[in-house]
Design a protein that fits this description.
Structural class: alpha/beta
CATH architecture: Alpha-Beta Barrel
CATH superfamily: Aldolase class I
Number of strands: 10
Radius of gyration: 19 Å
Helix content: 40-55%
Number of domains: 1
Strand content: 5-15%
Bound molecules: iron/sulfur cluster
Largest sheet: 10 strands, parallel
Number of helices: 15
Shape: globular
């Protein structure tokens, strides 16, 4: 195992090697975890950055085959009122989280972009404090838009954007999405976001039906090739009332270990990026998010969506209930990490690539 890790230092984009590392289990997985932790300490330190998450709306114009809030699903739909988003942002600020994430289904209309831009500008204005004179940092994760629409969001004050590709494999992408969607469109959007000046993130699902470990190795290679600043990825959790709800998949234990190995290998390959430990890990293990942090992640996203809306933002069936903030901080401190307060927690990679 030590030899494989040394080899990775020499050839970080060797697909065979990445595949072998992603498949390790037991004692070898622990060695992989420890190497990722060491790499994290060396390149981004041991801070954990919190982003308060607000799931703005579960409305979506798209119909991804795996998704619990896809357009054709007959579920109660909501959009959080602007004042309630602002209240969540103020709470986020009071709690000392330096950043907020606004996430939603994909609605490409100008009226939705207007709504988002107004909210972003208000959050920036109304969350200025002595500790954070520029207000909260804002990450958006809202899907694909035109260059003009992205530019407006950036000008309004958002400075990070997460757009997941879900897989870098064209044929697998086509099995997950209706024909109107393409991987090429997402790559182009990521490029546009980067040109505008956003810190750019992407991510994939892990343990999808028909996905091989080699495809996941290709995903890690793609993160490196795209030179992204942030990664948000997690295990596939089925949503029963969808076209992929009952597909044959790996066991929970297998998907969990694969998800953790993906974090570790991505850390070792991409080094100074931010990596989120996502809710989906908790859907497979009661301490999944903590395990993600132990495998090299450095971002956590406590959910601040109003409780009455949160129940209707279910991308998959086993969405865990929200953990108390105090509980999350205590758990993080129990593994020897510290939660950074009142800072954006930007990706070091962004500054390194721009310098
Ligand atoms: S995955 Fe995103 S874009 Fe696709 S249906 Fe779900 S919310 Fe919409």
């Amino acid at each position: 195992m030590k030899q494989l890790l040394a080899q990775l230092d020499e050839t970080p984009t060797d697909i065979e090697l990445l595949t072998t590392l992603l498949d390790v289990r037991g004692a070898d997985a622990e060695i992989l975890r420890d190497a990722a932790t060491e790499c994290m300490h060396a390149h981004v330190g041991d801070n954990v950055y919190f982003r308060g998450l607000v799931e703005v709306t579960n409305r979506c114009h798209l119909n991804c085959y795996y998704c619990g809030i896809r357009r054709d699903r007959d579920i109660p739909r909501y959009t959080v009122q602007a004042d309630d988003i602002l209240a969540a942002a103020r709470l986020c600020s009071r709690l000392g989280f330096g950043s907020l994430v606004l996430q939603s289904g994909e609605i490409r209309s100008d009226s939705y972009v207007n709504f988002i831009c107004d909210i972003v500008a208000r959050i920036k204005r109304e969350t200025r404090t002595v500790q954070q004179p520029n207000g909260l940092g804002i990450t958006l994760s809202l899907g694909v838009f035109s260059r003009t629409q992205y530019q407006r969001m950036f000008d309004a004050g958002a400075h990070r954007y997460l757009l997941r590709i879900e897989t870098s494999d064209d044929s697998l992408f086509a099995r997950l999405h209706p024909p109107a969607q393409s991987l090429a469109e997402r790559f182009e959007a990521l490029n546009t976001l980067r040109e505008i000046g956003f810190q750019v993130g992407t991510g994939v699902m892990i343990g999808l039906p028909g996905q091989t470990t080699r495809m996941l190795a290709q995903d890690v290679f793609t993160f490196k090739r795209l030179d992204v600043d942030m990664i948000g990825m997690g295990p596939f959790l089925p949503s029963s009332d969808t076209p992929m709800g009952h597909a044959q998949i790996l066991s929970s234990a297998q998907r969990l270990q694969l998800g953790l190995n993906m974090i570790a290998v991505t850390r070792l390959v991409c080094k100074d990026i931010n990596i989120a430990s996502t809710t989906a890990l908790e859907g497979l293990h009661p301490h999944g998010r903590l395990l993600g942090l132990q495998y090299g992640a450095n971002v956590a996203m406590p959910n601040l969506t109003p409780a009455e809306n949160r129940v209707n933002y279910k991308l998959y069936d086993d969405k865990p209930t929200a953990q108390s903030v105090d509980g999350a901080v205590a758990a993080i401190e129990s593994i020897g990490r510290r939660v950074a307060k009142n800072v954006f927690g930007d990706s070091k990679h962004f500054f390194n690539r721009c310098s």
